[in-house]
Every structure is written in C-alpha cells, then in structure tokens.
Amino acid sequence: MLFAWSFGVIGLLIGSFLNVVIYRLPRGESIAVPGSHCPACGHFLRPWELIPLLSFAGLRGRCRQCGAKISRRYPLVELGMGLLFFYTAWRASVVSLNLFSDLAFLSLLVALSFIDLDTMRLPDSLVVPLFLLGLVRALFLPVQPAFGYSVLGAVAAGGGFWLIARFYPRGMGFGDVKLAAALGAYLGFPKVFLAVFLASVGGSLWGGLMLALRKKSLKQQIPFGPYLALGAILTLYWGSLFMQRYVNVVGH
Ligand SMILES: [Zn+2]
C-alpha cells in the first residue's frame, strides 16, 4: 500500500507539471523557463506555493501578490493525476517498465484532453510520443498487445477515423485521426474499438445533454479528444475483463 501511496504523491507532482504543459504548450512557451508565475501579475511562485493541492488551499485559490483567482482546474488536475497514479500502481502492485509506460500513457492523455478542451487542437508534440510509446511498448515489453496487434490497431483505428474525417470533415479533425491511431498502437486490435465505442457513447450522451440544456447548439463543435482519452483509460483498466466476458457470452 505504501508503494501505491508513493505513486499517488508522484501523481500529484506530475499533475502540477501537466498544468504547466496544458497552459504553455499551446502558447508555444517553454515548459522549463521561466519558472511558474501568476499569469496576471508575473509573481514568481515560491517553492511552498508549488506544493500540489496544499498551496491552492493555503492561498484560498488566489495569487498571494495580486489576488487574481487561480483556476480550480489546477488542483483538480493534480488530484486527478494523484488518484490515477495511485490506482494504476495499486493494480500493478510491482514496479515494472509496463507500469511506467501506463503512467506515461495516462499523463499524455490528460494533457491532450485539456489542451483539446481549451484550443480544439491535439498537438503533434504529444500525439506522436503517445503513438511511439504504444509501438515501443508492444515491441519490447512482454505485454498485450503483441507488436502485430499494435500495428493493426493503429492502422484500423487511424484508418477508420481518417475515412470519417475525409467524408464528414465537420465532425472530426485530423488531430482525432492521429490520436485514434496512437490509441490503436497502445491498446491494440481489437481493444481500441472498445475505447472508440465508449468515446462515442460518452460524446453522444454529453452532447445530447448539453443540447437539451441549450448550453450548446448543433453548430458548435465539441472536442472529441477528451472522450477518446476517457474511453482509452477505461479500456486500459477494464478492457481485458470486458473482452473476456463478451467473448464468453458470444462463445456459449
Ligand atoms: Zn498575481
């Protein structure tokens, strides 16, 4: 348990780092320099102001110098990453390259989701590493999917999304095509289609709800990246279980 808790703490710190990535990467700013500062007044954060969750609570969600409000999303991303890291390590129960691979997968997906929400874009500088991570993991680690199924997953999911983007360009951007291919490489064939299915269900339900509440109109685009990421995370955790049950049901 101590093992999982340590990873939970690492997750909080990674979440804090992802907040920087989510803010700076779409603006073309350096991730490393300058250090974290208030976007309103430029006040550089002291070390204690960088402590995940606690600093937000200590500052009561405001900049210490100018009083500008700090978005609630910062502590939420930190907490979310802490929980994801804790749960993933707890499931894995031993340190392995595969655990680190899964944690990198989750981190990239969370960063991509929020950047897509903010900007409607999925930057190549995150999607390409995600894609390579999937291929390299399948090639070198004794895990599912095997390399052939990783390539097949990338081609099938990427190809399917490419067709949709080509013939229904309003519904989907090319960034989604590349993300689908990357998820295919990581989750493999046929599991990636479970992720796509869950993403479509999630997207339709949420889109329908927003439409019903008149928060969005039919003309407004909704970013699909966060749904793909959510589908992929659920599939990473429970895809095998689901597939087993499903195949069993079909088999009997
Ligand atoms: Zn400030």
TrEMBL record:
Sorted UniProt keywords: Cell inner membrane, Cell membrane, Hydrolase, Membrane, Methyltransferase, Multifunctional enzyme, Protease, Transferase, Transmembrane, Transmembrane helix
One GO term describing the cellular component: plasma membrane
Family of the protein in this entry: Belongs to the peptidase A24 family.
BP GO annotations: methylation; signal peptide processing
Principal location: membrane
Record membrane topology: Multi-pass membrane protein
Domain Prepilin peptidase A24 N-terminal, chain residue ranges per copy: 9-91
Any one GO molecular-function label of the UniProt entry: aspartic-type endopeptidase activity
Subcellular location: Cell inner membrane; Cell membrane
Record domain Prepilin type IV endopeptidase peptidase: where: 104-207
Organism, scientific name: Acididesulfobacillus acetoxydans
Top-level division of the source organism's lineage: Bacteria
Catalytic activity, reaction form: Typically cleaves a -Gly-|-Phe- bond to release an N-terminal, basic peptide of 5-8 residues from type IV prepilin, and then N-methylates the new N-terminal amino group, the methyl donor being S-adenosyl-L-methionine
Entry keyword Electron transport: no
Protein name: Prepilin leader peptidase/N-methyltransferase
Coiled coil: none
